[in-house]
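Need a sequence for this fold. Nothing fancy.
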């Protein structure tokens, strides 16, 4: 676990430095830019960036080719958190242990900051030095993952699940879109940066789908068992909003068992990928296990 922590921190620091370059402090920032930097640079695990960088490394690609994609992913993720915290969505006042963007800057500025980060992500993709065909493929994957048939579609389902008793199939679809789509995009972008073939991308996508599902199930469990100090945001919001989750349907222990099974499936998908670097594959194995044991 120590090696995982060290590598995660290394990927996070690399991403943080690059994000500072793409969204610099120019000394005379407008309020929207300040809010964008507040949410983008205010910490976080940088899990999606780490996945893109790790898969690129594992498949023999160059880190410099993946870092642009990693930054674009983090911008989309930060935008989604800003909007997710708004009163019209989950109405959360804390994020990563700090006041949510709309609490710190007001709702109108927070809305614009989220929009700004989303558009900045695609500007950032244009800075890639990879061949145009690979850049276009990356743009298409990230746009689809973030859009109405991806993450936004999942957020819609998540809101609707507060007003209905959702089936397990609907909960799985919600998780696959709201959380899993961007995780799958991260893995795919890492593969694209390394020039991976379609077969490899298929196994990588399978890995991503399973860890994405486990990540959301663990989130549901932490919402019931963690503290605001550990999680960095309010807890108990799922129950308060009458939201159907794995925990509400199965209970904590069975939900945890389901998450463990998904992690085992993720590892099997990883085993099927040919030509991976053993060292980086080890990181991806450890990362899968970390998803089950994380406390924030």
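Here you go.
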């Amino acid at each position: 676990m120590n090696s995982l922590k060290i590598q995660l921190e290394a990927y996070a620091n690399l991403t943080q430095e690059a994000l500072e370059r793409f969204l610099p402090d120019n000394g005379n920032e407008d309020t929207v830019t300040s809010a964008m930097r507040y949410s983008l640079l205010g910490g976080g695990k940088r899990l999606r960036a780490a996945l893109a960088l790790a898969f690129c490394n594992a498949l023999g690609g160059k880190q410099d080719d993946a870092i642009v994609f990693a930054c674009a992913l983090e911008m989309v993720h930060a935008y989604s958190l800003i909007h997710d915290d708004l009163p019209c969505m989950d109405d959360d006042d804390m994020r990563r242990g700090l006041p949510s963007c709309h609490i710190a800057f007001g709702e109108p500025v927070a809305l614009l900051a989220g929009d700004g980060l989303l558009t900045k992500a695609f500007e950032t993709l244009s800075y890639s030095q990879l061949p145009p065909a690979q850049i276009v493929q990356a743009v298409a994957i990230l746009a689809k993952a973030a859009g109405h048939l991806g993450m936004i579609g999942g957020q819609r389902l998540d809101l609707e699940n507060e007003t209905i008793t959702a089936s397990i199939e609907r909960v799985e679809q919600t998780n696959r879109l709201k959380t899993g789509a961007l995780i799958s995009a991260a893995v795919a972008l890492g593969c694209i940066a390394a020039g991976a073939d379609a077969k490899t991308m298929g196994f990588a996508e399978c890995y991503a789908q399973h860890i994405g599902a486990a990540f959301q199930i663990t989130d549901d469990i932490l919402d019931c068992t963690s503290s605001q100090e550990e999680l960095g945001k309010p807890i108990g919001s799922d129950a308060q909003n009458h939201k159907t989750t794995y925990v509400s349907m199965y209970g904590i222990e069975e939900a945890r068992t389901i998450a463990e099974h998904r992690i085992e499936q993720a590892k099997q998908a990883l085993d099927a990928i040919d030509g991976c670097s053993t060292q980086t594959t080890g990181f991806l194995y450890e990362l899968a296990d970390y998803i089950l044991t994380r406390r924030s």
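For context: Strands lie at 94-95, 98-99.
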